């Protein structure tokens, strides 16, 4: 079996669902169920004995060794993290705790388990760490995209905490020989995306007649990756990635935020027109910029294509249409996700 951490979050739950749709190999899912974790994402697995869910912290130095001992996974895929830049600006401590200290304890637990494995399972074992392109910092409009050798230059408490975790993972390979793999991916989007992030937030606000908040001039560029493409990339890296290497995963879809939100509005205008006949674009509102806002991220995903044969299947246009359709068809998921805690966050961030 494999151990997935953070498997009730956005990308982790998509990964678990995709994995069990393609494989009989069981998944042990360890997730703390913070505000971002949602077991409803996994409700289709309720009666599936191949999915074992445990609520717990990756930093729990008693629980994690017990789980590893009892379940003997052949791989650990680490998605668990605090993941939202704006929250890291309001309160960085949770990010240090989970992303840095938590990853450290997880590595220690995994190292102890792996060291005691027999020769065959030991050489087959993998620790795959899921990271972000934000560790590379920000690009100017004409700079070439991030490659795996771009120096780290994180700018937010979130990206700094992810960079720290990447360095620890790297060091555990270099020093202890732990068989690690790291992926650095760009902005994901798709089903089960928590509506604090740009795309689901604007989708929900649009449908609820609320402003679509664009930070600053809206010309910040992100490289959008459909979540299922990301999950496929992780499976490829897990199967055939070279130990100790990092792989950049991107969608080859650089878009300015304002263009993303305009596209979203156009699809909504077509699929669920406003009753007064206006475009949803009328709800776009420019708001105060994010402090330290990175201007542009772009991933050069040549290495993973050349070495592992992975490339994204979705363009932004096909992926965003699927995403909008999913949200329109899953209103009960949406309604349940908009909890009290989430409403407090909206008041704090946007008031
Ligand atoms: P998310 O915030 O939606 O989910 C994180 C999950 O981790 C939640 O289910 C949460 O309950 C769980 N978690 C948090 N702290 C934990 C702890 N201490 N122990 C166990 N579980 C804990 O995040 P996501 O968007 O699914 O991102 C997954 C990973 O991918 C993260 O490591 C993130 O840094 C990385 N990443 C995300 C994106 C993106 O666009 N979403 C882009 C690049 C990299
Ligand atoms: P986000 O989804 O938070 O991801 P990240 O900060 O990790 O890239 O934001 C994506 C982009 O959209 C980023 O440039 C910030 C911007 N943004 C807005 O303009 N308005 C918003 O309300 C949010 C949440 C983000």
Bound chemical compounds: nicotinamide-adenine-dinucleotide, thymidine-5'-diphosphate
**Largest sheet report:** 7 strands, parallel
Strand order across the biggest sheet? 3-2-1-4-5-6-11
Mean pLDDT: 97
Give unreliable regions as ranges.
Answer: none
CATH architecture of the domain at 2-193 and 226-252 and 292-313: 3-Layer(aba) Sandwich
Beta percentage is 15-25%
User: What is the highest CATH level, the class of the domain at 2-193 and 226-252 and 292-313?
Assistant: Alpha Beta
Helix tally equals: 13
CATH topology of the domain at 2-193 and 226-252 and 292-313: Rossmann fold
Q: Name the CATH superfamily assignment of the domain at 2-193 and 226-252 and 292-313.
A: NAD(P)-binding Rossmann-like Domain
Oligomer: single chain
Helix coverage percent: 40-55%
Shape: globular
């Amino acid at each position: 079996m494999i151990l997935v951490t953070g498997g009730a979050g956005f990308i982790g739950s998509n990964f678990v669902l995709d994995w069990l749709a393609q494989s009989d190999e069981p998944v042990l899912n360890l997730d703390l169920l913070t505000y971002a974790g949602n077991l409803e994402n996994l409700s289709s697995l309720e009666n599936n004995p191949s999915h074992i869910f445990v609520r717990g912290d990756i930093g729990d130095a008693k629980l994690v060794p017990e789980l590893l001992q009892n379940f003997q996974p052949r791989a650990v895929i680490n998605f668990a993290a605090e993941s939202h830049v704006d929250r890291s600006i309001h309160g960085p401590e949770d990010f240090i705790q989970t992303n840095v200290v938590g990853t450290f304890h997880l590595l220690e637990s995994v190292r102890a388990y792996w060291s005691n494995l027999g020769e065959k399972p030991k050489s087959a074992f993998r620790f795959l760490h899921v990271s972000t392109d934000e560790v590379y910092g920000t690009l100017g409009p004409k700079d070439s995209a991030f490659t795996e050798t771009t120096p780290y230059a994180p700018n937010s408490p979130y990206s700094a905490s992810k960079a720290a975790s990447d360095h620890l993972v790297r060091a555990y390979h270099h020093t202890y020989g732990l068989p690690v793999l790291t992926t650095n991916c760009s902005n994901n989007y798709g089903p089960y995306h928590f509506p604090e992030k740009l795309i689901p937030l604007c989708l929900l606000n649009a449908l609820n007649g609320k402003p679509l908040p664009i930070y600053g001039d809206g010309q910040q560029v992100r490289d959008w990756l459909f979540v299922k493409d990301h999950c496929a990339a992780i499976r490829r890296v897990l199967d055939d990635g070279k130990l100790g290497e990092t792989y950049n995963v991107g969608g080859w879809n650089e878009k300015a935020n304002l263009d993303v939100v305009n596209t979203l509005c156009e699809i909504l205008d077509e699929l669920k027109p406003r009753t007064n006949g206006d475009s949803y674009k009328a709800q776009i509102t420019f708001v105060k910029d994010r402090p330290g806002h990175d201007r542009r991220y772009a991933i050069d995903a040549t290495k993973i294509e050349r070495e592992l044969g992975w490339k994204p299947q979705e363009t932004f246009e096909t992926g965003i249409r699927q995403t909008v359709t999913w949200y329109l068809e899953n209103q009960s998921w949406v309604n349940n996700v908009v909890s009290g805690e989430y409403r407090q966050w909206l008041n704090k961030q946007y008031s």
